[in-house]
Amino acid sequence: MKFITGKNRQQVQFYTQCLDETISLDNEVRLIDLFVDSLKLSDYGFEMDFKKNLPSRQAGGRPAYHPADLLKLFIYGYLNRMRSSRVLEKECNRNIELMWLMKSLAPDHNTISNFRKDNPKAIRKVFQATVALAKHFELIGGKLLAGDSTKLRAQNSKKNNFNPKKIERHLEYIDNKLNEYNAALALADDDLKKVIEDTIDKQNQRKDFYNDLTQQLEETGETQISTSDPDARQMITRNNITEVAYNVQTTVDAKHNIPIDYKLTNENDSKAMGGMTRRTKTILGKNDFTLLYDKGYHTGSEFAYANAHGVEVIVAIPDVASHAPDVAFDVEHFVYDKDKDCYTCPANELLTTNGNWYNKDRGKSVSKVKHYKSNACLSCEFFERCTKNKKGRLIERSEHADLIFENKQRMDANKQLYRRRQAIVEHPYGVIKRQWGFCYVSTKKGIKRAAADVGLIFVAYNLRRIFNLIDKNELQKFLKELALLFRDFFALQNRFLAFLTNPFFCNPLGNFFMNLRQIALFASVFLLFLMN
User: Fold this and answer.
1) pTM for this predicted structure
2) 3-state secondary structure 255-283
3) Res. 267: pLDDT tops 50
4) Phi, psi of 512, rounded to the nearest 5 degrees
5) Cβ atoms of 74 and 456 closer than 8 Å
């Protein structure tokens, strides 16, 4: 049987291909190159002038890598499931696509890592550019959106996450051990004393460590502290399983499941809906859209925030927190009369209020409630079935109760629409966490660094969706035109700056001509944009 055989490794060969010919014209690496070239990175916040930050003796040293090259490297890496700076460094020397994309540049892993660490805000603007690109090709409907969150594990173990109770248990254990060691020290001979004293010193050092953690918690007012990644928090991920993680809030458009916004936090979902709603309104430039959320976002103050911005939200109704002894007497069976400001209970008795508002502490926030009760409770035949309160049934009505009721009405009227929520918002998470394996944050030492990592994940996801949905030739043509447009604009801008520094224009007559030239210049720029 004959087999396919390879070439002789010792044979000398002559290659006539250039590097560009090794990459096919429809290779997506060309789209990455064009996409980054179409961005004005200086406006995004990337550092473009490194010499001004260097001492004079270093001003003539080795130049820095251009931010565009490093951004291309990261986008390619994240699109191909490579986030490690060391892996990217290695790939620059052996991956033919990266050799083409990077023009054979091979930055070291520190340079690669520092670029991501130093540019979280700029990376967010790159994400916004992907949203703008999707808008241009009408991939974003802007009518129905869904919001949710997902937990990404932090680079911090549970062992290195502490709260006051955990610290107290450690201190109690150390004190017990110290008592044992001190008792043993009094009975020990000279040979063992040195060993026991060293052990006591180690325990005292551990005690000082935990006391320092306690002091930090008291000074910051936080309920947790993590030693490897200080901003990470222990959170419930699923089925009461906890992880030290970050919480990523996202808003996803329903038309093609494209995220239009993300926000990295270390808090739960209860106070997230209002802020994400406001940001969505700003991104879309309108408020005539519907946002779908699950029951974790069902908070009265967040309904008020969304209502103030004129945005319609539909949020799932959570289960009743506590039931009456007989569920037939749960609060949902008490009928509220808005005109008379009173409740009618299932026994047909009226519960009235004195009109006063009371502050109710809800963890980090305080809400206002009214109390409703009736004198008929104590003599009611259904007392035992209705309440365990010896003074009678007490109903609390939140200041946001009307908005909560309106959401219930919307939910009842749009059950079929709400069923789309999970399919819309879980699609990006499925790709990012299941297919790509990005179920954790690859950076540590703070939320800003983690935000840069998450930003690049969503940049890669949006570009993947755009590359899959738009014809590559059409996308290539558009990005080329956009890159040429920016190149011409930059050249025109540089000529304008040279014009402004001309010494002739330092006198009043020169200023007059300068204004005329400035008007003409900006008119030409405007025409340039129109032609393209």
Assistant:
1) 0.84
2) CCCEEEEEEEECCCCCCCHHHHHHHHHHH
3) yes
4) -65, -50
5) yes
